[in-house]
Amino acid sequence: MRLYTRSGDQGKTRVIGGTRDKDDIRIEAYGTCDELNACTAKAAAVLDDALFPDIAGELRRIQHELFDCGSDLSSIKEDAEWKMGCESITYLERRIDIYTEEAPALQRFILPGGTTASAELHICRTVARRAERQITTLAKMETINEEVQRYINRLSDYFFAAARIVNHRLDIADIEYKRSAVVFREGHNKE
Known about the structure:
This is Corrinoid adenosyltransferase. By secondary structure, the protein is mainly alpha-helical. Helix content is 58%, strand content 6%. The protein has one domain (14-73, 85-176): Hypothetical Protein Ta1238, Chain: A (Up-down Bundle), CATH 1.20.1200.10. It starts with 11 loop residues before the first strand and ends in a 15-residue tail after the last strand.
């Protein structure tokens, strides 16, 4: 199998059901999901599987789901059969709730960092937010699987919660943003 096709040399690329310009918002959206998948792989690579078997397994699951998101976003077919459904969102919500319960309560914004693994998870969070912005723009212009938009939104919250848990389990305190007012109240321990 050849890895190059030369079909993109003129700035076009194939999607499910047709072709688009490489700078089309649809291509940007699923391309950012691909970038997020690579960032997730990096986070998993620096995470100690022995200390964090739960998060390591979740990151592998997320990588598969990000491929599903990319597949759904790359389809322009009217009768597309979507891969992403609400069960993946429900799963993330359960994991976020568990990690939020385990972590110390937040009152102020925190800076990304602490451990290398936590920093990598924060990078995943910010790339997920960018993907979400692109997907939101795309959804205003064309039909998409709305579950993808919901999933990516929830995924950024998951990465935030997981980044905090990595630091917490290693007894590394989150670094509060010095000029932050109290922004989180009891029961609102999320980004």
